[in-house]
Amino acid sequence: xxxxxxxxxxxxxxxxxxxxxxxxxxxxxxxxxxxxxxxxxxxxxxxxxxxxxxxxxxxxxxxxxxxxxxxxxxxxxxxxxxxxxxxxxxxxxxxxxxxxxxxxxxxxxxxxxxxxxxxxxxxxxx
Length: 126
Fold this sequence. Notes:
Blueprint (H helix, E strand, L loop, with lengths): L2 E9 L3 H4 L2 H14 L9 E5 L8 E8 L2 E8 L4 E8 L5 H12 L3 E9 L11
Antiparallel strand pairs: 1-5, 1-6, 2-3, 3-4, 4-5
Helix pairs in contact: 2-3
Protein backbone atom coordinates (compact mmCIF):
# COMPACT_ATOMS: atom_id res chain seq x y z
CA UNK A 1 0.00 0.00 0.00
CA UNK A 2 1.24 3.47 -0.83
CA UNK A 3 -1.38 5.58 0.90
CA UNK A 4 -4.79 6.09 2.44
CA UNK A 5 -7.33 8.22 0.57
CA UNK A 6 -10.51 9.43 2.23
CA UNK A 7 -13.14 10.98 -0.04
CA UNK A 8 -16.07 12.73 1.62
CA UNK A 9 -19.11 14.23 -0.08
CA UNK A 10 -20.83 16.37 2.55
CA UNK A 11 -24.39 17.21 1.57
CA UNK A 12 -26.58 20.13 2.61
CA UNK A 13 -24.06 21.83 4.90
CA UNK A 14 -24.46 25.08 6.80
CA UNK A 15 -24.31 27.52 3.86
CA UNK A 16 -22.96 30.41 5.92
CA UNK A 17 -20.15 28.23 7.26
CA UNK A 18 -18.96 27.13 3.82
CA UNK A 19 -18.89 30.77 2.62
CA UNK A 20 -16.66 31.94 5.49
CA UNK A 21 -12.95 31.89 4.53
CA UNK A 22 -11.80 32.29 8.13
CA UNK A 23 -13.89 29.32 9.22
CA UNK A 24 -12.50 27.23 6.35
CA UNK A 25 -8.94 28.11 7.38
CA UNK A 26 -9.68 27.11 11.01
CA UNK A 27 -11.26 23.89 9.72
CA UNK A 28 -8.11 23.10 7.76
CA UNK A 29 -5.89 23.64 10.80
CA UNK A 30 -8.14 21.58 13.08
CA UNK A 31 -8.39 18.77 10.53
CA UNK A 32 -4.61 18.56 10.21
CA UNK A 33 -4.31 18.38 14.00
CA UNK A 34 -7.16 15.86 14.41
CA UNK A 35 -5.61 13.37 12.01
CA UNK A 36 -2.15 13.87 13.54
CA UNK A 37 -0.51 15.34 10.46
CA UNK A 38 1.86 18.26 9.99
CA UNK A 39 0.90 21.13 7.68
CA UNK A 40 3.47 22.06 5.08
CA UNK A 41 2.98 25.80 4.81
CA UNK A 42 -0.26 27.74 4.99
CA UNK A 43 -3.42 26.56 3.22
CA UNK A 44 -4.22 27.96 -0.19
CA UNK A 45 -7.82 29.19 -0.27
CA UNK A 46 -9.31 30.77 -3.38
CA UNK A 47 -12.84 31.65 -4.41
CA UNK A 48 -13.55 30.20 -7.86
CA UNK A 49 -16.23 29.99 -10.56
CA UNK A 50 -18.06 33.20 -9.74
CA UNK A 51 -19.35 33.17 -13.33
CA UNK A 52 -21.30 29.96 -12.59
CA UNK A 53 -23.49 30.05 -9.46
CA UNK A 54 -23.80 26.26 -9.37
CA UNK A 55 -20.03 25.82 -9.16
CA UNK A 56 -19.10 28.97 -7.26
CA UNK A 57 -17.29 28.58 -3.96
CA UNK A 58 -13.99 28.30 -2.15
CA UNK A 59 -11.37 25.71 -2.98
CA UNK A 60 -8.87 24.67 -0.32
CA UNK A 61 -5.48 23.07 -0.80
CA UNK A 62 -3.44 22.19 2.27
CA UNK A 63 -0.19 20.38 1.75
CA UNK A 64 0.74 18.01 4.54
CA UNK A 65 4.12 16.37 4.95
CA UNK A 66 2.64 13.04 3.91
CA UNK A 67 0.63 14.40 0.91
CA UNK A 68 -2.41 16.72 0.77
CA UNK A 69 -5.90 17.79 1.73
CA UNK A 70 -8.16 19.38 -0.88
CA UNK A 71 -11.76 20.55 -0.75
CA UNK A 72 -14.32 22.48 -2.76
CA UNK A 73 -17.19 24.28 -1.04
CA UNK A 74 -20.19 24.63 -3.41
CA UNK A 75 -22.08 27.63 -2.09
CA UNK A 76 -25.36 27.23 -3.95
CA UNK A 77 -25.94 23.56 -3.13
CA UNK A 78 -24.33 23.68 0.29
CA UNK A 79 -22.16 20.69 -0.57
CA UNK A 80 -18.51 20.13 0.31
CA UNK A 81 -16.21 17.74 -1.56
CA UNK A 82 -13.18 16.78 0.54
CA UNK A 83 -10.17 14.56 -0.21
CA UNK A 84 -7.53 13.57 2.32
CA UNK A 85 -4.61 11.60 0.94
CA UNK A 86 -1.64 10.49 3.02
CA UNK A 87 1.09 7.88 2.74
CA UNK A 88 0.74 7.56 6.52
CA UNK A 89 -2.44 6.10 8.03
CA UNK A 90 -4.86 8.45 9.77
CA UNK A 91 -8.12 8.07 11.75
CA UNK A 92 -10.95 8.66 9.29
CA UNK A 93 -13.57 9.01 12.02
CA UNK A 94 -11.68 11.99 13.46
CA UNK A 95 -11.66 13.66 10.03
CA UNK A 96 -15.42 13.15 9.74
CA UNK A 97 -15.98 14.57 13.24
CA UNK A 98 -14.13 17.78 12.30
CA UNK A 99 -16.28 18.11 9.17
CA UNK A 100 -19.44 17.67 11.22
CA UNK A 101 -18.28 20.26 13.76
CA UNK A 102 -17.50 22.95 11.18
CA UNK A 103 -20.13 22.40 8.48
CA UNK A 104 -23.02 20.39 9.99
CA UNK A 105 -23.73 18.27 6.90
CA UNK A 106 -27.10 16.54 6.75
CA UNK A 107 -25.64 13.76 4.59
CA UNK A 108 -22.19 12.23 4.32
CA UNK A 109 -21.03 9.90 1.58
CA UNK A 110 -17.74 8.25 2.50
CA UNK A 111 -15.34 6.47 0.20
CA UNK A 112 -12.12 4.98 1.56
CA UNK A 113 -9.37 3.78 -0.73
CA UNK A 114 -6.01 2.21 -0.19
CA UNK A 115 -3.77 3.50 -2.95
CA UNK A 116 -0.89 1.68 -4.56
CA UNK A 117 0.43 1.25 -8.07
CA UNK A 118 0.29 -2.20 -9.57
CA UNK A 119 3.74 -3.51 -10.30
CA UNK A 120 2.90 -4.77 -13.79
CA UNK A 121 4.51 -3.80 -17.08
CA UNK A 122 3.09 -0.66 -18.71
CA UNK A 123 0.96 -1.18 -21.80
CA UNK A 124 2.52 0.25 -24.92
CA UNK A 125 -0.16 2.36 -26.61
CA UNK A 126 1.85 2.85 -29.81
